[in-house]
């Protein structure tokens, strides 16, 4: 593969486990992936519902898949084949494949709005649906399904927490201007990065280009004062980095 990123320095704020594949891909094309997890994922204990009563199960992230089925395996609880599975995106669907489960219900866009638009979730009155997710986050999926009169079981299997970090390392990054572009994959990661770097670095953060994965995240970045915001589809992050590196896109305030 031709190396075309030419030492472009990308601050990767994804949680450690989710950052690995993108880091490898960036480095394979000559970029520099700077690991800076802005979130840590902490497993939560939960009471497993009666799976045999479920008609639909929705998984909102690969972490939701991992921690849910980790618990099921530890208890030797089988997964009923009668349950229709919905994955919020292709990464979540791929996580399901590790447990020999396939979702044929994947929205076109990896967000709550697109998920709620799939045909399976339109007529759900009195259907028992399991929503497997992390603590906190958006409430749109749950609220909409309840409004559609579904019998919803919402299950938090993990939570996002502030990670440990090296303040001196972060200070060196911004004082030496050692980052060309920042990747954000969640709103909480943005807030955490501003807290981790501290007030002295806010001007630098606001003027450093960033990539976000939705219009909603772009608005959140703008509300923090970021000036050069680029929106990318999750599956097109590498292509977006190439375009940025070639000067084809520059980012703008949303």
UniProtKB/TrEMBL annotation:
Gene Ontology terms, MF aspect: uroporphyrinogen-III synthase activity
Keywords: Lyase, Porphyrin biosynthesis
Function, as annotated: Catalyzes cyclization of the linear tetrapyrrole, hydroxymethylbilane, to the macrocyclic uroporphyrinogen III.
Protein name, per record: Uroporphyrinogen-III synthase
EC code(s) of this entry: 4.2.1.75
Residue ranges annotated for the Tetrapyrrole biosynthesis uroporphyrinogen III synthase domain, each copy included: 21-233
Origin species: Legionella jordanis
Coiled coil, from the record: none
